[in-house]
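Teaching note: in complex prediction, the entire set of molecules is handled at once rather than each chain in isolation. The prompt given to students was simply: 'Predict the structure of this complex.' The entities are:
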Amino acid sequence: MESFNLLLDGFADAATPINLLWALLGVTIGTAVGVLPGIGPALTVALLLPLTFRLEPTGALILFAGVYYGGMYGGSTSAILLNTPGESASMVAAMEGNKMARSGRAASALATAAIGSFVAGTMATILLTFVAQPFAEIAVGFTPADYVAMMAIAFVTVASLLGASPLKGFASLVIGLTIGLVGIESQSGQARLTFGLPSLLDGIDVVVVVIALFAIGEVFAHALRGGGGGTVTPLKGRAVLTREDWRRSWPAWLRGTAFGFPIGALPAGGAEIPTFLSYATEKNLSKHKDEFGHGAIEGVAGPEAANNAAAAGVLVPLLTIGLPTSATAAVILTAFQSYGLQPGPQLFSESGPLVYALLASLFIGNLMLLVLNLPLARVWARLLQIPAYAIYAAILVFATLGALASGGGFADLLLLYVIGLLGVLMTMADVPVAPAIVGLILGPLFETQLQRALQISEGDPSVLFDSMLSIVLWSVAGLGLVLPPLVSRLKKRTAGV
Amino acid sequence: MPPPATQDEGRTAPSEKRGRRLAGPLPYVVAAVLAVVLVVVTVVRGGAADVTNEALGDQQLKIMAPADPGGGWDQTSRAMQASLKELAGRTEVYNVGGAGGTIGLSQFAQLDGQSHQLMTTGLIMVGAIAANGSANTLDEVTPLARLTTDSQVIVVPAESDIMTMEDLADRMRDQLSSVSFAGGSAGGAEQILAGLVAKDLELNPGDVNYIAHSGGGEAVATLLSGSAVAGISGISEIKAQIDAGQMRALAVSSAERVGVLPDVPTLRESDIDVELTNWRGVVAPAGITTEQEQALESLVMAMTETDEWQETLAREGWGDVALAGPQFETFLDDEIVRTTQIVDELGLSEEQR
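The expected output is the structure of the full assembly:
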């Protein structure tokens, strides 16, 4: 009850005209940089930071929070319309969302992403306000061994992302795992698969690979097949979201939030794993399994909600323990410190009014983003009526700009087109590209945590099953592996009888 | 001081363009989208300004931060940008992250003779050059000045039975491999410190059980989960946990005690003859003239005396160790010799693989 009153005070602070203006500016900039692949909220906040040293802390932090949340909304727009995910966590939304856009349902896909982001963002912010402290205490208890078990669950769910042919799916996964090996290995400092090129030492940026495989690969595969005339899709239907869309979207939003917030709150959780888990869950639970891979609305609603809830989850360790667990969080931490505020166990008691103003502004920012994005959905969707050749040209420009902006300069541009060529071959051979991204993201995470766990135990593998938590997680992974085929066999049997 | 008008333009422009996009029909929409993209790119990349400065060859000063946004080099570069405003006009900061700064170094080494280009550097780059077997070294740049220093702190979780640095040293002598250290990236300042401590205890630095993390935050998470026995971190990254009583600070790595942790002894006070600080400095490309070098050194040293810079040092808790000219070059040479040797002994260097 006390935190509720404090939150009301926070709303009073955040709702001053000047602070509302900062919030609006933040969400607008955030949406703009989110739309453009390669420029993330981290870079944007880092650039704004020196400009805001003379601002009072509340206004500056509200601005940064707006950029952070806005980036999450914007990322899904380019993913859905142009199949060019602005960041890796929007990849899953691109898979189903772009298929929807291509069948004339771009406005619905954008709307379910925007409303899903709002629902998830709001619920996650409520959780952040009231249960951040107990949540953080559990979250920091996760040992490297527990993370290994959690990654195992993620790997099991990957099966549902593999696509129609398991063989091609696995081939794609191996491509991703291999790309993930490039660069300096974290524990030994040894370089792998860098071929003596300094620009490969730090590995290949996930964003570059995502843009290359999704956007570049698709554009060139399309050009090779010929046929640049016509529009990508006709627009269908009048309503942005039909009653049926609502009915299918809302459970997915809730489930996505349930995955996103807790995993986002884990120090090494991240935003990608919950989107994978959400997609797999929606696919398993859906009555419209056949639509998955061809534009199922649940496949956009769930992962987008998960993505946004994870973004709020990341603020749990940041505010309660002072642990930055993503690049943007690290920059926001710098912002806190530049105002002489130290996020950590004492932040809520020492700088309470400021924290609650920040939390209140997250609610306000979310609402602003919904108001900003929902009417835009139809406007954005009409963009697809431009002739296809123009769209594909725009995708190329966009993708190239994105790779340049992600910071590697010429080297990243070269990589973009080399991997893009790989993407063309994959698209032409009907090999799905999503598993490659999954391998690229999960592979290095899994390897690092496994190495850490084994190094701490001095090489004793029993450490992996040492805690109650890891045993539970391994069991879930095991069930995830065994249950789906078992259930479908049972269903077949009952159907046969 | 009000912020310059150019920055305000940069910040409000995107929202104006967005407003137009809502109103217009399709061609306008497309035009507006492209405009937003251009504005964003311009804002992000920083516009050109007509700065005239003799020493810089009439060019705008550019500072490369050889790391991603948010880290120490990025913060140092941006602090320099702010403090140089009155001395050298607008300065552009850009990031070339990765591999302990050696990726940035490999690009910077190509800028031969361009006196308007600067790069931040420091102990971590010295260590990374040795560990990565980098093709480029600091021989290919012109050292200008050392700027700041960050002390490191050795901690254990609060519930640990290790109470002092002497206890930890005993545990290390007992069985080195059972004392796992959580810290930053492989070959970074934290692992170098762990190696130096082991060496001082007459143990083999290569046997230190060091668990590398890609950032200070991750290492703190591993420590809080109770998995590692001890941790090494920059003070600013773990001060909150120390203050909250979740971590116990055993020793700091600097020559003298640190102002923010007055009760924590130095390693020397704990009978370990090691001193290591995570220093940062600034370099110019090779091939610049002696006059240009001297002009840049005076510019940087003048910068360290500005109020803006001193405020930054106080805010970040960095030590003021400004040092230029031959003294800095001697210091740098000593650091390279010591660091290369310990990186070798840690089993991290290229030749040993």
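Point out the following to students. The radius of gyration of chain B is 23 Å. DSSP finds 13 helices and ten strands in chain B.
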